Amino acid sequence: MLQASQTAPFVEFDRVQKSYDGQTLVVKDLNLSIPRGEFLTMLGPSGSGKTTTLMMLAGFETATHGEIRLGGRNINDVPPHKRGIGMVFQNYALFPHMSVAENLAFPLEVRKMDKAERDAKVRRALDMVQMGQFANRRPAQLSGGQQQRIALARALVFEPELVLMDEPLGALDKQLREHMQFEIKHLHDRLGITVVYVTHDQTEALTMSDRVAVFNDGIVQQLAPPDELYEAPVNSFVAQFIGENNTLEGIVTALDREKCVVRLDSGDEIDAKPVNVSRVGDRTRVSIRPERVEFNKARLRPDAHTLRARVEEFIYMGDMFRTRLSVAGNDEFVIKSRNAPDQVRLQPGQEIEIGWLPEDCRALDAA
Amino acid sequence: MADATISGGMPAGREARPVASGPVLAADGTPLKASLARSLRRQKARALLLIAPLLLFILATFVLPIGDMLFRSVENRIVGDTLPRTVAALREDTAPVPGEPAFVALYEDLVVAEEYKRHTQLGTRLNYEWGGASSLFRGTGRAVARFGTDVYTDQFQDADPAFEDGAQWAAWMADEAVRAALPETADAYDAWAQFTTEVGNDDPAEEEPGDMVYAALHRDLSAGAQPPGLPAVDVTGFETVSIKELLIEEDDAWGEPEIWNVLRLYAPAYTPGYYLNAVDLQKDLDGVSVRPENDRIYVTLFVRTMIMSLVITGTCILLGYPIAYLLASLPMRTANLLMILVLLPFWTSLLVRTSAWKVLLQQQGVINDILVWAGVVSDANRLVMINNQTGTIIAMTHILLPFMILPLYSVMKGIPPSFVRAAKSLGANDWTAFWRVYFPQSVPGIGAGSILVFILSIGYYITPELVGGTKGVFISNRIAYHISTSLNWGLAAALGTILLAVVLLLYWVYDRLVGIDNVKLGG
Q: How many contacts, defined by CB atoms under 8 Å, are there between A and B?
């Protein structure tokens, strides 16, 4: 992937804006470049502009302002059927009056491909998604997962370089969804196509993508690889949206490049890594991942700030223990610990002290 | 039950459920099916109770009238009921113009029918088959009461005064031996006694019997009967009259074979005659033949009704499809507003709408005026758009259009926009995406709309009547004519039944071609 990202951008959004009613912008000043071969996911809550962005790329919506380029060419005025972009829809959009094979042959037929070549390609595409024996079925005779595979095969059969997927796994149950995530990912790796994937499921985004663009309010909040997104969110929206997250609010009392001290509203002081704070006196919201909180004093640095906490609830989750604490006035503070042989099971009502490494605690905007 | 558990449409990879060998038993050992039926009984009874009022209503206002109509189209008891003796006599006598016995039977039947005033009804009925029957029966009925058969009455009464005595006659006719000896007399006397009691409200024992009884007595005695207890009368010297001659003298038609053919053909209680008539055929003694050219109207009318209904259905599709498409693709608010416009005609009286078309389409009407004013047509060549087929097609398309738009709209509403988008993303241009993807999915709506419009228009009456003139009327107008003007209900029923059969046949054909499962009234 490293090599691919070094080449010239394949898809480019240049200062793109979109408004439906002339009063509010659904997409505000979008600048995004996607290198060839990348799996990019647009993640965000509903109404954040991610689907609109996808539809503009597919050609079903026109950009109010700005330029969308595909392979260096401006495609603003190219109609959808001439863009050569494969697309997988949320409800598969398999044509119900055609058999599976006819569905797959459709894009080849409209490209006036001769029958023998068409049949060979359809067979190859069906085999690719392990659906070879279903060629003569109607879509209605297939299960959700099977329909999903056919939709995928249909979007790939005419060998587009770019494939768009609009929440393609939304209608599947959890187990099937996880299985399909891997299949899509493997297909992407094998075919070397560029994929732009839209979802509101952050787990899906993290497992599948090379890079994730987190959308909110028509703006890309952060564009980063999954690990960076999770571990180094640049603002509190991203921190909240990706994964589970504990927040504490307070004021910055000391600040240098590597570290700052935050006095919480309860009066306690904690160490944090400054991300979105610029000077002493700023109000901030600090964010700590539940699995990075430590309550075993022996594992903390001797000079680390600690907070007193009371155990409110202990939940056994099999591989993990999830403990809800009351910390500095916040009784929704959650810690997670691995179910290891030596792990302590905390009891409700128990008083403990918790702490963390300063770099795991990020001082973000107060939002 | 066992073989119902494996369905063909099950996706491969999923195992078929194992099939139980014996009947499945409930916990208490009774067969599960019986248990289930018992537990559902209350529910079924409730459901039945809920639909009972509608069921009774439909039964009384729909099923029974249709049954009655089907029956009327073949029912023909009036001939056998009014002329029972004639029908019996004609069974024996197959000559084109039968002999004396058939005329005697006709004479007696007509005397009875005249008393009951039934001969005119029969005349009307037979007039449908043979023009002239109506006046023939009316005239003959009037004449039979004063026929020359009183010669027998006078001669018998001259021979013995006992023949004048009503009470004596009643006594004779109560005697089984006399009745056995004088069968024709007994039959004639019974008929006379019956109408004397029922129509005249008199006691037959106090009345002198009618002439036909004496005529029958003369026939019995001439045949050599020797009734016990009656005064011995030698009838060989009696002056006689031929009833056949009397009837032919009254109306020459009785001497011609036509009326007798008609009587023979329509004697049975059930007849295909109305149906033959309804398809321009007629029955004659050799079988079935085509009616004379100038009598044929119904086949033309049926064909015209079919073709015009198809044309109306076609124009409704052409006009309705784009509107339904627009409605289905517009945002809800605008679509609802437009839908009100579509439904507006429903809130206007049918007569008002049809009359409006008269105003618009007539030669001195709005459209012609505008065309003349615009110079498209000259004043001398104003278009004829009403009182012909054009008028019927225009007005009926307008009236039936909502029945096409509504099912189309609801089907189109159910087609997600993602289908067309998918087609376009796969490389199809606007037309291909529409024709290959959108249109096939809207076919069920076209089917539903077409069935509605076609069936409605095939039986339409008011609009063709008002704007159709002579060339634009439908079979239904003819049915209405027979129901309310000519009063030939049997023919109306036969025409109606044929129409019903044609609709059912087309429905069946449609089911075979398109599949009734493919008809959707809702999305």
A: 76
Superfamily (CATH) of domain A244-364: Nucleic acid-binding proteins (2.40.50.140)
Residue in A90, A142, A164 nearest the CB of B11: A142
Contact B418 A91 (CB under 8 A): yes
Inform me whether the C-beta atom of residue B236 falls under 8 Å from chain A C-beta atoms.
no
Q: What is the pTM for the complete model shown?
A: 0.76
**Structure ipTM:** 0.83
User: Which residues have a Cβ under 8 Å from the Cβ of B407 and sit 6 or more positions away?
Assistant: B445, B448, B449, B452, B520, B521
Tokens coding A26: 């659904």
What are the sequence ranges of the domains in chain A? Answer: 2-236, 244-364
How far, in Å, CA of B5 to CA of B361, rounded?
63
Give the model confidence (pLDDT) of B369-427 as tens digits.
999 999 888 888 888 888 888 889 999 999 999 999 999 998 999 899 899 999 999 99
Q: Which of A60, A91, A97 sits opposite B440 (nearest CB)?
A: A97
In chain B, the largest separation of any two C-alpha atoms, in whole Å, equals 114
Give B426's contacts in chain A (Cβ within 8 Å): 81, 86, 106-107, 110, 154-155, 158
Is the domain covering B298-518 a CATH 3.80.10.10 domain? no
Residue of A nearest to B426 (CA): A107
Mean pLDDT throughout B88-99? Answer: 89
Q: How confident is the model at residue B11, as a pLDDT?
A: 42
CATH 1.10.3720.10 residue ranges of chain B are: 298-518
- Dump pLDDT digits (tens) for A244-282: 889 998 999 888 888 888 888 888 888 888 888 888 888
Question: How many helices and strands in chain A, by DSSP H and E?
Answer: 9, 19
Q: Do B429 and A81 touch (CB under 8 A)?
A: yes
**In chain B, which among 405-444 make CB contacts under 8 A with chain A?**
416, 418-419, 421-429, 432-433, 436-437, 440-441
Each residue's pLDDT tens digit, A342-354: 888 888 999 998 8
What is the end-to-end Cα distance of chain A in Å, rounded? 35
By CB atoms closer than 10 A (0-12, 13-18, 19+), residue B186 is buried
